[in-house]
Here is the input.
Amino acid sequence: MSEILVIGHRNPDTDAICSAVGYAEFKRRTGMANAVAARCGDTNERIDFVLRTFGVPAPKFVSDVSPRVRDVMAPHPISVSADTSAAEALMILEDRGKRVLPVLNAEGVCLGLVSVFKMTRFFYPAPDRLFDSRRVVASLNSLARTLGGELVHGIDPDREEDLVMMISAMSLGSFVQRLPIYQPEKLLVIVGDRDDVQQVAIDERIRVLIVTGGLPVAETVLRDAKAGGVSIVRSPHDTATTAMLCRAAISVRHLLNEHVLTFNEDEALAGIRSLAAESQFQGFPVVGDDGRVVGMLSKSDFLKSIERKLILVDHNELSQAVRGADQVEILEIIDHHRIGTLTTHQPILFRNEPVGSTSTIVADCFLRAQVELPQHIAGLLLAGLVSDTLNLTSPTTTPRDAEILTVLEKITRINAARFTEKLFESGSLLIARPAAQAITTDCKEYAEQDRRFSVAQIEEIGFDQFNKRKDEVLAALREYQQSREYYFAALLVTDVVRQSSLLVIAGEESFLKQIDYPEIEPGIYELISVVSRKKQLLPFLTHCLKRAG
Here is the structure.
């Protein structure tokens, strides 16, 4: 059973992390045993403080959910070594219903592919290569194994040789006439129980005599063979079958497609689809980071459905979702933000409520369903709620937030006001992080009127730290805006004590002219009584966007 990831937005804030952990717990307690909390961004000092306080590990980190090669490949593929005979390889291909097999060395590294097509070309050479139908490339031991026969007498039986096959299906006189055509030390003669032909072949010092039909070898023939340095193999098959199997004793190293197309198990399917479709091969070895083969990918594997599924919390726009979210199934969305442009292939549960935090909605799920809310989960949801609503002082706060917070305080026996003070004292991003990281820690991307922009928020106790680093912050924001090719990039620095903010913004001049808040310095505006990115700043910025045309 594959995991169902309950995951918040990129650059997660406290509410995104806490609601993901809380909703995954709710889903497990209501029958979805494979629900797992996840995150697609780093935690910060405040999130770490919350997780430590309630003894909860950080959710599983998942940076990309795009379907990967490993999601559809056949793991632990059947393979052969370079010394495997063509006969053995063909049996494996038939038994397993495969058309290609990877050929691996002792370390598990792919040497190439052996295919039915390539072996067919060997066994049935073109009219201009008819002599190839007489070639037998094998050792004596390989011949005996492939025939299921007996090496009656063998000289240097492990040496691989390139022999010429001759079948004695003629009179003794014709046989004697044909023998000088070939070098005797290269000859492999197939014969039945014809002692006269066997004796002539031995007298000519051929390389190997194969006696068919499982017939015995006369003592005199064996004695003379030993004396003349001629090897003898007994085959249990008739002449036609023996001849065919002698050709099939060749090692697959001689039949390899060496220039094969391989893929790494972590590659995105979308990125290799066209490459695989255009390839002449039907199968592709899949390698791990160490270069060893870990699976096989076929063209039909691209048609498989991916079992990975998502539940999105604290966002509903693909621009904010984990990478690859548009390529997998989204089962549910639990959110409290504006509804964006996300589409799904089938109806889903979409719970979007105008409350102050997603943690409020998750706690409400427990209460409405009368499902036990564990104390540590209640603590996380309390933290998410007070973080997003600034302990019910944000303009996004609703009466339902206040009701839920009262319940969470009772379950956890925690005073929300005192906890909020500790939460915001637990870490200043402007102290703990470089400016380039601080401005993207809680940053969301939006698209409006065919323009992309970002809005980030940093919550501080006072503006002292910002004032010390304002030039550095503004420079980092400008670089971020230009590198992402955003129309503008905004940062709301909020003083949670004074309930007021500063807006730092970088963007097109025509847009900046639409901002009618007091500009205290170039690119920095004073927003008295503005604390909410969602309910106050974002509507204002989209209004400016429309005015800028």
Observations:
- The chain is about 35% helix and 20% strand.
- The two ends are 50 Å apart (CA to CA).
- The first helix runs from residue 14 to 29.
- The longest strand covers residues 451-460.
